[in-house]
Amino acid sequence: MESVDNFKGIFKYYKSNKPKPSFDDVISLVDPSKLTDKVSKMTLSNITEDNRAALLGLRKTNEWELYSFHDHPGLFLIKNPFTALGQRYWIRKCLETYPRKPNKLNIDIETLLPDWWAKCFETGQCNRQLQKKLRWTTLGYHHNWDTKIYTDENKTPFPEDLAELSDVVAKYLGYSCFRAEAAIVNYYHMDSTLSAHTDHSEVNLEAPLFSFSFGQTAIFLIGGKDKSREPSAILVNSGDVMIMSKEARLCYHAVPKILSSELSPWDDKEDLCLISDDDTLLRFISDKTLLVSSMNKNYKDSVWTKFRDYMKESRINMNVRQVLNETQNSLTDYHFNDT
Ligand code: OGA
Ligand code: MN
Q: Which pTM value belongs to this model?
């Protein structure tokens, strides 16, 4: 059968500046009551609060709003479950920490920088040109953009804090066995796009994919298993968490447009408060005191200036995946259950 690319037309439509697209068909969860034919608000079932959540910048689940999409079974969106301080923490991590070695960066082929963010401020002023060059960082099992194959050799330790965050969110959604093993951190500027693709490199394609977004708003397109299906457009705002599971896990998706948002939830003064250490047990993070201080050091507006400036015209997306099957410890490990 001849397959038609209906995805491309919609991508081009939303990417276009001239003429400007209409947003009438874009699903926005800012006022979901208008969208009863497209989305449903779900309740998180049988939830026991996880004490780790507050230390990771997450709100209590009674404040969470979880949505499912009628035309996209398996796709879910949690409307910003982060506190203002939580957003600041994760944004700062993506800028200051994750681009450090041994993690891999798109700019490695040009210049191997041990610390990209520090380099951007080396002269005392901000090197915007260098700042704009960073488009992605990979963590854990490094995504190979050419072969699309993960290997045990091309792997570095996955950040403990992001593993902890993913574990908490996954458990709330009922995925008790999820393991964060690979992540792509995408950095978007106002003119960046991400073309239509599926994420199919992982050995384990049953495990869900968790996508955390911060900064400016994206139009996110999601279609079907091939490009013949016209995609739906969804607005993804700062703090939103998308979950691609089941049927949605292997669907084509893309980001044709970044839009300036009027909101900056990381600066929401009413919401900004320090966290306190308690007797919570963490699963992945070895130094809890360090986590608490790394979180709280973002409280003062003045220390956050550099990050705020960057986020004014950027979007960051942390795309977290499980690579291995539950019974595997490495890619060469085949402990299949069906002996
Ligand atoms: C990806 C991806 C989507 C986004 O990294 O594979 O699809 O929202 N990112 O940036
Ligand atoms: Mn993707």
A: 0.97
Determine the distance from the C-alpha atom of residue 18 to the mean position of all C-alpha atoms in its chain, rounded to a whole number.
Answer: 29
The three-state secondary structure class of 204 is: coil
Q: What's the token pair of residue 119? A: 């380099």
The pLDDT tens digits of the residues spanning 56-97 come to 999 999 999 999 999 999 999 999 999 999 999 999 999 999
Q: Which one-letter DSSP state was computed for residue 138?
A: E
Helical H runs in 188-254? none
State the helix-helix crossing angle for 84-92 and 288-296, rounded to 10 degrees. 110
Instruction: Provide residues with CB under 6 Å of ligand 1.
Output: 184, 186, 194, 199, 211, 213, 218, 220, 253, 255, 317, 319
Q: Encoding tokens for residue 62?
A: 């009674």
Task: Tell me which architecture the domain covering 24-321 has in CATH.
Answer: Sandwich (2.60)
Candidate from 209, 319, 321 with most ligand 1 atoms within 8 A of CB, to mutate: 319
